[in-house]
From TrEMBL:
UniProt-recorded name of the protein: ATP-binding cassette subfamily B protein
Segments passing through the bilayer: 42-67, 79-102, 161-181, 187-205, 272-290
Statement: the UniProt record of this protein carries the keyword RNA-binding: no
Keywords carried by this UniProt record: ATP-binding, Membrane, Nucleotide-binding, Transmembrane, Transmembrane helix
Record domain ABC transporter: where: 362-596
Naturally occurring in which organism (per UniProt): Cellulomonas iranensis
Cell compartments where the protein resides: Cell membrane
Superkingdom of the organism of origin: Bacteria
Record bears the keyword Heme: no
Xref: Pfam families: ABC_membrane, ABC_tran
Length: 604
C-alpha cells in the first residue's frame, strides 16, 4: 500500500515513444474499424440529420414569404398563398420533428452496436494479454478502461456526435439562409461572428485545461479507491484508515475544485454567447428596421433575418457543451486503442506443433531470463526433468523459484535458450495442447463466483458430475463439499459460503486433478507448519502429484521430503540437485535448511 500519488493517467506507458500524430492515427484507425460494420446506418443517420436541419432552416424563410406575399394577397381577398405558406411551415416542422426523432433513435442504434463491439474487444484482448502486461497494468487502470473510458465514448456517441453535426450544420444553413435572403443582414452576422469565435476559442483553451485537471483528479480518486480496497487487509492491519482517508479526501476535494472551475468556465461561455446573440439580434433589427423605413427591405424578410440571427448562436452553446465530451471521448479512444494495440509478449506460434499425448518430459536448455528490460533473474539454467518425476524447488525468497515455474507454464518466454516439453520448444506447442499438458496451480487458489462444482469443472469444461466428484474424492475434499449447505451446488462467492485458505487449496487441487495434465506446476501455499489439520492438504497434494511430472515450489518439509528430487535455487542458479536423502547427507545448504525446518517443527 503506497500513499504516494499515482502517475497522471494521461500518459499511458505504452504510448511512450509515439508521437501525438501516431497516437491520433491509431485512435482513428480504431474508430474506423468500429464504424465499418455500421457504416451504412451511420451514413443514413447523417442524411437524416441533414434533412432535419434543412427543414428547420426553411421555417424563417417561409415566414418571410408568408408576411411579404401571403398577407398582401389576403388583403386582396386571396387566402390561398397564406394558407399554402402556413401548410408548408407545418410540413417542414413535422419533417424536422420526425427526422430529429429518427436521428436520436438511429444514432443510439449505431452507438450501442459500436460500444458492444468495443466492450467485447477490450475484454477479449485484455484477457489474451500476457501475464507480463497484467503484472504491470494496475487493476485501477484496467477498470477505468472498461468503465469511465467506455462511458466517455458512450456519452459522445449516444447523442454528442449527432448534436455536434446538427449544430454545425444548423449554423452553416442558417448563415446561408440569411445571406440568400438578405446579404446585408448576413454581413451584420458576420461581424458578430468575430467575438463569437474569440469567446469560443477562449472557452476551448480554458475548458481543456480544466478538463485535463478534472480527468487527472478523477483517475486519482478511482485508483486510490481501488488500491485501498484491494489492499484493505494491509490498511486495516496497520490501522492506516485515517491517513488513507485524508489522502483520499484531499484528492476528492481536488476533483470537486476542478469540476467547480469547469462549471464556472462553462457559465462564462454560455452567458457570453447569449449576450453576443442578443446584441446581434438588436443590430440586425436596427439595421434592417432603418432599411424597412427607407423601403429598401420587406418586413417579412426583416422578421426572417431576426429569427435567423437569434438561431445562429444557440448551436454554439451546444457545441461548447459537447466539446468536453468530445475531448474525453478522444482521450478515452487514445487509451483504448493503446490497450488494444498491446501485443501479447507470449505470442501464439505461427506453425503450432500438436502434442496430443504429452509424456511430460521437461527441459530447460540454456535458459536466460529477466523481467522486461530488467536484470537477469535466471542467468543460465540447464535442467532436465524426466517424465513422471516430482521435483521440489527450494530456496530463499527472491531466489527465482516462481520465475522458473512461470517460464515452465509459459507465462513468459525466455530471453535466450528454450523451455522444451517432450523435446518441443514451448513457443511452438499448439496453445490448446499446452494448456491441457501443463497446468499451474498458484498459491492464491482463486475461486470464481459460482458453485463449487463449476469451480472444479474449470479444470475440464464439460466434465460430468460423477467426474467432478471423483476428482474431489481423489484429493480428499469430497466430504467437505458434501457437508456444505447445497453440496456441490453451494455458491462460493461472497453471497455464499466462504471457504478457508486450505479448503480453497483443496478445491483447486481437485480442479487440477480433473484437468489431469502431464505436467503440473504448483506453488505450494506458504504455510510451513506441518500441523495435523494440514494433513488433508498434504494427502490431497500427494495424490495430485502421483503419476505425472510435477514441479513444486515447496514450502513444507513434508512436501520436499516426498519429492523424488530437490533443487536448491540461489540467485537464479541450481546450487544443489539430488534426492532429499542425498542432499541431507551432503551437508550443504539443503541439509542446513532441513535442520532448521525440523527445529521449527519441534518447537511448534
Ligand atoms: N513481475 C516481475 N517483474 C519484475 N521483477 C520480478 C517480477 N517477479 C519477480 N521479479 C524478480 O525476480 C526475482 C526472482 O523472483 P521470484 O518470484 O522468482 O523468487 P522466488 O524464489 O519465487 O521468491 P518467493 O519464495 O519469495 O516467492 C526477484 O528478484 C524479483 O524481484
Amino acid at each position: 500500500m503506497t500513499t504516494t500519488a499515482p502517475r497522471p493517467p494521461e500518459v499511458d506507458d505504452h504510448d511512450a515513444g509515439l508521437t501525438p500524430a501516431q497516437v491520433r492515427a491509431r485512435s482513428l484507425g480504431l474508430l474506423a474499424s468500429l464504424l465499418r460494420p455500421v457504416a451504412r446506418r451511420a451514413w443514413l443517420t447523417a442524411l437524416v440529420v441533414v434533412v432535419a436541419q434543412l427543414a428547420l432552416v426553411a421555417g424563417p424563410a417561409l415566414v418571410a414569404v408568408g408576411i411579404d406575399r401571403g398577407l398582401p394577397a389576403l388583403r386582396g381577398g386571396d387566402a390561398g398563398p397564406l394558407l399554402l405558406v402556413a401548410g408548408g411551415y407545418a410540413l417542414t416542422a413535422l419533417v424536422a420533428g420526425v427526422f430529429t426523432a429518427a436521428t436520436v433513435r438511429m444514432a443510439a442504434t449505431v452507438s450501442q452496436a459500436v460500444l458492444l463491439d468495443l466492450r467485447r474487444r477490450v475484454f477479449r484482448h485484455t484477457q489474451r494479454l500476457s501475464l507480463e502486461f497484467h503484472e504491470r497494468y494496475t487493476s485501477g487502470r484496467i477498470i477505468s478502461r472498461q468503465t469511465s473510458d467506455l462511458d466517455a465514448l458512450r456519452e459522445l456517441l449516444d447523442g454528442g456526435v449527432t448534436t455536434l453535426a446538427a449544430s454545425g450544420l444548423a449554423m452553416v444553413f442558417t448563415a446561408t439562409g440569411l445571406v440568400l435572403l438578405d446579404w446585408r443582414s448576413g454581413l451584420v452576422l458576420l461581424v458578430a461572428v468575430v467575438p463569437g469565435v474569440v469567446l469560443t476559442r477562449w472557452f476551448q483553451v480554458r475548458s481543456q485545461v480544466q478538463y485535463r485537471r478534472s480527468r487527472t483528479a478523477v483517475a486519482r480518486v478511482i485508483v486510490r479507491f481501488v488500491e485501498t480496497m484491494t489492499g484493505i487487509r494491509a490498511v486495516q492491519a496497520f490501522r492506516r484508515e485515517r491517513q488513507v482517508a485524508q489522502v483520499y479526501e484531499a484528492e476528492a476535494e481536488e476533483y470537486r475544485a476542478a469540476n467547480a472551475e469547469a462549471i464556472r468556465v462553462n457559465g462564462v461561455f454560455d452567458t457570453g454567447l447569449v449576450l453576443i446573440g442578443n446584441v446581434t439580434v438588436a443590430a440586425v433589427l436596427l439595421v434592417g428596421g432603418l432599411r424597412v423605413l427607407d423601403g429598401a427591405l420587406d418586413v417579412g424578410v426583416l422578421v426572417a433575418a431576426v429569427l435567423y440571427a437569434r438561431r445562429f448562436f444557440a448551436p454554439l452553446a451546444q457545441i461548447g457543451m459537447f466539446y468536453n465530451s468530445f475531448q474525453s471521448a478522444t482521450a478515452a479512444l487514445e487509451k483504448l486503442s493503446g490497450l488494444l494495440a498491446q501485443e501479447p509478449t507470449v505470442p501464439d506460434p505461427a506453425r503450432p506443433v500438436r502434442l496430443r499425448e504429452p509424456a511430460g518430459d521437461v527441459r530447460f536448455a540454456g535458459v536466460e531470463f529477466g523481467y522486461r528490460d530488467g536484470p537477469s533473474v535466471l542467468p543460465r539454467l540447464d535442467l532436465h526433468v524426466p517424465a513422471g518425476q516430482t521435483v521440489a524447488l527450494v530456496g530463499e525468497t527472491g531466489a527465482g523459484k516462481s520465475t522458473v515455474a512461470k517460464l515452465l507454464a509459459r507465462f513468459y518466454d525466455p530471453r535466450e535458450g528454450a523451455v522444451l516439453l517432450d523435446g518441443v520448444d514451448l513457443r511452438d506447442v499448439d496453445p490448446r495442447d499446452l494448456r491441457t499438458a501443463m497446468v499451474m496451480v498458484t498459491q492464491e487458489a482463486y475461486l470464481f463466483s459460482g458453485s463449487v462444482a463449476a469451480n472444479i469443472a474449470l479444470g475440464r469444461p464439460g466434465a460430468t458430475r460423477a467426474e467432478i466428484e471423483a476428482a474431489a474424492r481423489a484429493v480428499g475434499v469430497h466430504d467437505l463439499v458434501a457437508s456444505l449447505p447445497d453440496g456441490y451446488d453451494t455458491e462460493v462467492d461472497t453471497r455464499g459460503v466462504r471457504l478457508s485458505a486450505g479448503q480453497r487449496q483443496l478445491v483447486s487441487f481437485a480442479r487440477a486433478f480433473l484437468a489431469d495434465p502431464a505436467v503440473l506446476v504448483l506453488d505450494e501455499a506458504t504455510s510451513s507448519l506441518d500441523i495435523p489439520g494440514e494433513q488433508l492438504v498434504q494427502d490431497g497434494l500427494r495424490t495430485l502429484l502421483t503419476g505425472r511430472t510435477a514441479v513444486v515450489i515447496a514450502h513444507r518439509l513434508s512436501t520436499v521430503m516426498h519429492a523424488d528430487r530437490v533443487l536448491v535455487v540461489d540467485g537464479g542458479r541450481v546450487t544443489e540437485d539430488g534426492s532429499p536423502a542425498e542432499l541431507v547427507a551432503a551437508g550443504d545448504r539443503f541439509a542446513e535448511l532441513h535442520r532448521q525446518w525440523q527445529d521449527s517443527l519441534r518447537s511448534a
